[in-house]
C-alpha cells in the first residue's frame, strides 16, 4: 500500500494550486499508476473546466536548422557536422502560412536554431509581413535567446507569443546539458524580459534529461509557478545519435504524463501542448497527453523536403498537416477520445495579474 499522504498532496494542489518543494519531490518519487490515475481524473476536470473539450492547433514552421549553439542534447547543435543544413526563405515561410491558414490554423509558430542569417531585422520583416497578411492570427516565435531590445523589435513587428523553454532551472544541472557560454540565469532572464515586453510567454523543460533528479523537477515546477507563463511545453528527452548524449536513456511516457497532470492542476488556465516528443516515444502519446490535461497540438507545416533535417532527436515524427486529409486524421484521433480540434487563435486563459 502506498503512502496515503501523496493523495492528500494532490488534493491540496487541486485546491491551492501550489505545493512546497518537498511535497513536489515526494509526489514525483512516489509515482504509481494508481496515483497517476487519481491525478488525471482531477487534471482532466480542470482542463475541461477551462477549455472544454477543445484542442487548439498550432502550425509549426521549422524555418531554419542552422544554430550557433552547441547544446549537448540537441541534434541540430553546431558541432553536428552530419546535419544537412537548410533555411527557408521569406517566401517559403509565407507559403507555409498560406497552406496553414487554409487548413484552419490561426497560430503560426516560427521555430529554429539560433541562425545568424536570421538577424532581428530579417526576422522582423518576415513577422511584419505575416502580421499584415493574417491580422487574425497569432504569431509565436521560438528562436532562442536574444537581448531585450531584439525581443522588443520582434514584438513591435507583430509577434505575440514566445516559446523559450528554460530546459532546467537548476544551475549545475543546466551546466551539464550546455556548453559554458550558456547559463540558466541568462535563459531565465530572457523569459522575464519577454514577459515584461508583453509577450504571451511559454516555457518548459525536458523530462528525463541526463542527470535530472526529482529535486531538479521540483525546482522546475516552482519556477513555473513563479514565472506564471501562458504556456508550458514539456516533453521527454530523447537521445540523438550524433550528440554527446547518444548513449543516454530517454525520458519516460509515464513521468511526462504525470508532470502534465501536475502542471495542469498548478496552473489550470495554462496552454499545455501534447508535444511531438511525447508522440515520438509512444504511438498514442499525444492522445494520452490530452487525457492527462494537455490542450494543444502542434502539427508540422514545414515543407516536406526539409522535415527530415530538423531532427532534434532520433525518430522524430512529423505530423503531416500539409494535406487536408492529415488534418482530418488528427481530428479523428481527437474525436476518438472525446475531444475536438478547433479553428481559433486559442489564447491562454492564464492571465497574469
Ligand atoms: N533554438 C530554439 C528552439 C530549440 S528546439 C530555442 O533555443 O529555444 C525546441 C526544444 O526542443 C528545446 O527547447 C528542447 O527542450 C527540445 N529538444 C532539443 N533536443 C531535444 C532532445 N534530444 N530530446 C527532446 N527534446 C529536445
TrEMBL record:
Binding site for [4Fe-4S] cluster: 67, 71, 74
Iron keyword on record: yes
InterPro entries (alphabetical): Aldolase_TIM, BATS_dom, Elp3/MiaA/NifB-like_rSAM, FeFe-hyd_HydE_rSAM, HydE/PylB-like, rSAM, rSAM_sf
Domain Radical SAM core: residue ranges: 53-275
Keyword entries, A-Z: 4Fe-4S, Iron, Iron-sulfur, Metal-binding, S-adenosyl-L-methionine
List of residues binding S-adenosyl-L-methionine: 167, 187
GO MF terms held by the record: 4 iron, 4 sulfur cluster binding; metal ion binding; transferase activity
Cofactor(s) this protein requires: [2Fe-2S] cluster; [4Fe-4S] cluster
Gene Ontology biological process terms in this record: sulfur compound biosynthetic process; water-soluble vitamin biosynthetic process
Pfam families (UniProt xref): Radical_SAM
Cofactor note: Binds 1 [4Fe-4S] cluster. The cluster is coordinated with 3 cysteines and an exchangeable S-adenosyl-L-methionine.
PROSITE patterns cross-referenced by the UniProt entry: RADICAL_SAM
Binding site for (3R)-3-methyl-D-ornithine: 142
Alphabetical list of NCBIfam families matching this protein: rSAM_HydE
Name of the protein this chain belongs to: [FeFe] hydrogenase H-cluster radical SAM maturase HydE
Organism per entry: Mediterraneibacter gnavus (strain CC55_001C)
